[in-house]
Specification:
The protein is an alpha+beta fold. The chain starts with a helix and ends with a helix. The chain is elongated, with a radius of gyration of 33 Å. A five-stranded mixed beta sheet has the order 2-4-5-7-6. The protein folds into two domains: 61 residues, no CATH class; 191 residues, Muramoyl-pentapeptide Carboxypeptidase, domain 2. Helix content is 53%, strand content 10%. Helix 1 packs antiparallel against helix 4.
């Protein structure tokens, strides 16, 4: 860029001859003289210099645009590459949000609008507290007033955390639980990827049936363990999970059917999380009754 400016300067001085302004270095040392002489420039010479300057601008201006295009193209390639490398078992989707809201509508649960409704549900026992244990911890930044969920969701968290602890002797972490519509709208203003607070794809956190479990920092073995555990329950229609990339967490909506299924596990063995997906316990019970 500097080379082009210098070259253009000497080209103009050669065309203007004796009426030219002082040489390039001297211009900055004799501002008054330069202004005096430049006022005497003939009209034709002024036109020539203006045309040369316009030509230079036209030639130089495409460079930033080309550089910007090149950067944008590189950004798109890297974005696609990251999308290929990140291939979770439960990728977030529009259809998953639809299924979560259909389940909430089936149970006929309200979307909690504000803190007043939240406190009323706590007082009635419709929402129960999530408490830390030997196998479960809660993210420190989570507001204590929102460390609540539906009873069957708390049972799910307890069961998963116990299974995880038996396998890895470490705690699983809850990052988020119930939210109000007011809180979700604030979150959406900060995070454009957050689910809306209204409509068919509204966040299932608003009904208290969903928790976010920490995924960041887990080893590949630990991630596969949780994925297999969720895969089994998802096949039974008991949970609707997503693996969120922005916050690196397992977003898990739990159906109220989990309570009935959990009762059957007091008689039949718990699902094998390391082996292949087994048949539902209810189907096994039916088969046993038929054989007798």
């Amino acid at each position: 860029m500097v080379h082009n400016i210098v070259h253009l300067w000497f080209t103009i001085t050669q065309l203007l001859g004796k009426w030219a302004v002082p040489p390039f270095p001297e211009m900055f040392q004799a501002d008054k003289l330069a202004m005096t002489r430049s006022s005497k420039l003939p009209g034709k010479l002024l036109m020539v210099s203006a045309l040369l300057l316009a030509a230079f601008v036209l030639v130089a201006s495409p460079e930033p645009a080309f550089a910007l295009h090149r950067v944008n193209h590189r950004h798109r390639i890297l974005h696609r590459l990251r999308g290929i490398l990140w291939n979770p078992l439960f990728r977030p989707s529009h259809d998953s949000l639809i299924r979560q809201n259909e389940e909430i509508d089936r149970i006929d649960l309200p979307r909690i609008q504000d803190d007043a409704e939240l406190e009323a549900l706590k007082a009635s026992g419709a929402l129960v507290p999530i408490e830390e244990s030997d196998s479960l911890k809660i993210e420190r930044g989570l507001d204590p007033s929102r460390r609540f969920c539906r009873p069957w969701t708390r049972d799910f968290v307890a069961d998963l955390s116990e299974a995880y602890y038996r396998q890895f002797h470490d705690k699983i972490q809850v990052n988020s639980a119930v939210r109000t519509v007011k809180v979700q709208k604030k979150l959406r203003r900060r995070n454009r990827n957050a689910a809306p607070a209204e409509g068919d794809t509204a966040s299932s956190h608003l009904a208290g049936v969903t928790v976010d479990l920490q995924r960041r920092g887990l080893t590949k073995e630990e991630i596969r363990f949780v994925e297999r555990y969720l895969f089994y329950l998802n096949a039974l229609g008991l949970v609707e999970p997503e693996e969120e990339r922005r916050h690196w967490c397992f977003h898990v909506m739990v159906s109220d059917r989990y309570s009935d299924w959990r009762q059957t596990q007091t008689i039949f063995p718990r699902p094998p999380v390391e082996g292949p997906v087994a048949a539902p316990a209810t189907a096994t019970a039916t088969a046993m009754t038929a054989s007798n």
